[in-house]
Amino acid sequence: MRKSCWLILFVLLFASCAKEGLSNFPLDGVYTGIYLQTGSEYRSAHVRLIFVGNGYSGDSDDTDKTICYGNYEFIIDSIDFKSLCATPQDQLLLAGKYNWLTAGDSLYLTRDSTVYTSYKEQFILSKQ
Fold it and tell me: 91-125, pLDDT tens digit by residue?
């Protein structure tokens, strides 16, 4: 009984520390790279994302969709971008939840969409 109580306490402590560390992941800086949308729809663009604290902004060379400014938050294995612009979400390159991965100075954001059509979105970025 005593061992199981310690085990439960350890697991809870580890889980809370892991969440806390994740939410403080330092994205601060400028990231540049490409945006790719593949599947039933294709789109590509050169992008620049600027992260300061829990805020972001950016730009791209896409003529139909834009990157606005807003806030982001880490949620377990995803990152959620919330735009603060009046631009509708379907006209933004970056909005909503993405899976994320880092490797060195590179940041990868990916998600699959099946709302109206099936496609995959990717941001492949390097910190400048």
Answer: 999 999 999 999 999 999 999 976 677 889 999 99
87 inside domain: yes
Q: CA dist 41 to 1, 10, 62, 117, Å?
A: 57, 47, 14, 8
66 occurs within a structural domain: yes
Report yes or no on 75 lying in a domain: yes
**Token reading at 60:** 């791209």
Taking CA atoms, 30 is separated from 19, 57, 109, in Å, by 25, 10, 15
The C-alpha atoms of residue 58 and residue 39 are separated, in whole angstroms, by: 25
Give the bridge partners for 59, in sequence order.
48
Residue (of 120, 112, 22) closest to 73 by Cα position: 22
Question: What is the gyration radius of the CA atoms in the chain, in angstroms?
Answer: 17
User: Tens digits of per-residue pLDDT, 33-92?
Assistant: 999 999 988 999 999 999 999 999 999 999 999 999 999 999 888 999 999 999 998 899
- Residue 47 and residue 52: Cα distance in Å, rounded? 17
